[in-house]
Amino acid sequence: VRQLVSQAIAAGLLFKDVPTTSWAFTAVTDLSARGLVTGYEDGKFHPDNAVTRAEYAKLVCSALGVKPDIVTSDPFKDVTITHWAAGYIAAAVGKGWLTGYAGGVFKPDEPVSMAQALVVITRSQHWNDTATLPYTDVPSSYWARAFIEACFTRSIIKNPDPGIESGGKLSPDGHCTRAQACVLISRLLALKP
Predict the structure, then answer these.
(1) The model scores a pTM over 0.90
(2) How crowded is residue 43: how many other Cβ atoms within 10 Å of its Cβ?
(3) What residues are paired with 177 via a beta bridge?
(4) Cβ proximity of 17 and 43 under 8 Å
(5) Does residue 172 contact residue 142 with C-beta atoms inside 8 Å?
(6) Residue 130 in contact with residue 153, Cβ under 8 Å?
(7) DSSP character at residue 160
(8) What's the rounded mean pLDDT across residues 107-129?
(9) Residue 26 dihedral angles phi and psi, to the nearest 5°
(10) What φ, ψ does residue 61 adopt, rounded to 5°?
(11) Dihedral of alpha carbons 43, 47, 48, 51, sign
């Protein structure tokens, strides 16, 4: 795995705002080398920007080798067949990884929360592991606790985990950033044969 990571880093793009000292450097360059993420025209990656639901649908589908669906009708009221991510959204929803909201909307431009990002990973792998979580802000009654436990068991998230958690708090309802999404998906791909 270390050799593959070194090769990925060598092949990946280097972004002005993701220096080698960044906590997410290895993951961002890994996904860049795999062609899963790109930067912006300014040569930056903008690692602290929130990932939208549409972007995350594309990232997870692409990372797991799921091709976008051919869309012949609007998948949601707010995702028309001409939406840039319509095929990825339809594929992710079809697999049961993501769901829409009441009223037939998907909210493609809404930021993905950390909990939602972990739910998608857990659903994509059909995990049902349980664990005692170290995060003080994920009570036993939290809606996504079982999904978070599964990701913790598989080391998608850890404790300590600089950049993902802080002071024993996961902030599950907070926005998942581009850097965090790269780290989560890179760790998932490292588990795959």
Answers:
(1) yes
(2) 11
(3) 50
(4) no
(5) yes
(6) yes
(7) S
(8) 98
(9) -60, -45
(10) -60, -50
(11) positive
